[in-house]
Amino acid sequence: MKKVILHVDCNKFYASVECLHRPELRGLPMAVGGSEASRHGIVLTKSQEAADYGVKTGEALWQARQKCPGLIVVPPNYPLYMRFSELARKIYCDYTDLVEPYGLDECWLDVTGSGLFGDGESIAQEIRNRVKRELGITVSIGVSYNKVFAKLGSDYKKPDAVTVIKESNFKDLLWPLPVRDMFFVGRATEKKLKSCAINTIGDIARCSEEYMKLILGKHGQTLHAYAWGLDRSPVRHMDEAAEVKSIGNSSTAPRDLKTENDVKVMIYVLAESVGRRMREQGFRCKTLSISVRDKDLQSFSRQIKLSGYTAATGELAARAMDLFNENYDFKKQKPIRSIGLTCSDFEHEARAVQLDLFGNAQKRLEAEHLDATLDELQARFGKGSVRRGVVLTDRDLSDFIPGSGFNPFKEKPGSD
After folding, report:
1. Cα separations (Å) of 394 from 67, 255, 257?
2. Handedness of CA 41, 75, 251, 299 (dihedral sign)
3. DSSP letters for 226-255
4. CA separation for the pair 181, 53 (Å, rounded)
5. Which residues are registered as beta bridge partners of 110?
6. 416 residues of the chain, pLDDT tens digit each
7. In this structure, are residues 202 and 176 in contact, taking their beta carbons and an 8 Å threshold?
8. Contact 32/72 with Cβ under 8 angstroms?
9. Which of 246, 208, 245, 249 is nearest to 227 (CA)?
10. Structural domains for the chain
């Protein structure tokens, strides 16, 4: 039996929820934006009225205000968005238990076995009408026989629309679209493809698989398969946890990083967060990567294989600094705006550790045990109760929790 997959995308989700709860914003150019004081001032989403001025998601708020001088910016209210996201998923679950979230505002649904409610398009139309009637927001839904085409379908026509993509029409609908619309094609991949005169999804499909592999490696083969609709990935059950393939954090610094010590402070804060999350889940990593973005928003990433599996904060930070110093020179390059650290290639801590003649494995275990003790102290007495000396050399750079806008060392919970 051929699969019937839906991809539901809540249109301008954050902005729609804000306008629903704050009627005075309806019909006005508004955007949900990050904190400019902490240099997270980008447009997270915008209303259609703001979009009509050319305001784009992801651009700096100052750029958005140049396009739209009357732009109203409101801070994100994530608890409210999560509540609406849960309410939407409850509607989806009335039709299937194969519901796989993709962020707060998107979900895949496998309705292959839901024929009691009609065919895929009928179910999609019913869900679209229910979300509008019961929640007051609109959704766009793609209906297809695989996840990639369903995702492209939900993006094809917006807002408040249903698009059906079949084996008989996918070439006509999808192949003329620009490559940036393809799933997993980011800015760098788009640039690489265009440099090879590959401008549309159809161009990807018409290339040979070998040529796509030549220019993009394994990723090129995947994109070639996607362009032909050869995606067999299943929609996970709503209670099935996704496999953890990487753990990472990144943060925009409160000021530009201009020295090696500036970077070191940030790296240690990030390594503490990533190391703690790995230890909580019982993981050790073998691959470490860093991402760096300068003040002109030019970025790069680098990764290395570690000499052994580890979850020790000190080793993660030291190797990250080695990797940074090998690839960045403040004398020749610009100050840094943000930096990230990610660990991947995991093994479980329960797996036996092979000791070595030089005692390196034993030192890693001892360092991890010490870190675990620090984790317990911080969980009991607060994040700031025990801190590494290196992060105290610059409180402005270290007093934050990665992945959170809340500063526990300077603010009270709930302060604005």
Report:
1. 37, 12, 11
2. negative
3. HHTT---PPPPPTTPPPP--EEEEEEEEEE
4. 22
5. 5
6. 789 999 999 999 999 999 999 999 999 999 999 877 767 788 999 999 999 999 998 888 999 999 999 999 999 999 999 999 999 999 999 999 999 999 899 999 999 999 999 999 999 999 999 999 999 999 999 999 999 999 999 999 998 999 999 999 999 999 999 999 998 898 889 999 999 999 999 999 999 999 999 999 999 999 999 999 999 999 988 777 667 789 999 988 888 899 999 999 999 999 999 999 999 888 999 999 999 999 887 888 999 999 889 999 999 999 999 999 999 998 888 899 999 999 999 988 656 566 665 667 778 888 888 888 888 888 888 777 788 888 888 877 877 667 544 333 333 333 32
7. yes
8. no
9. 208
10. 1-167 (3.30.70.270), 175-227 (1.10.150.20), 246-398 (3.30.1490.100)
Task: Assess contact for 347 and 287: CB atoms under 8 A.
Answer: no
> ∠124-127-128 over CA atoms, to 5°?
85
In terms of residues, how long is the chain?
416
Is 240 in the active site?
no
d(CA 131, CA 95): 13
Residue whose token pair is 């009335």: 94
Query: Which residue is associated with the tokens 């869900």?
Result: 127
Which residue is catalytic, options 18, 100, 106, 272?
A: 106
Number of other CB atoms surrounding residue 168 within 10 Å: 7
Residue 291, beta-bridge partner list: 301, 340
Q: Determine how β-strand 139-144 pairs with β-strand 162-164.
A: parallel
CA distances from 361 to 17, 160, 285, 287, 366 (A): 51, 57, 13, 16, 9
Which residues fall within 8 angstroms of residue 267, CB to CB, at 6 or more apart?
290, 317, 320, 321, 324, 339, 341
55-85 burial: b if 16+ Cβ within 10 Å, else e: bebebbbeebeeebeebbbbebeeeebeebb
Could you tell me the two tokens for 366? 């001892």
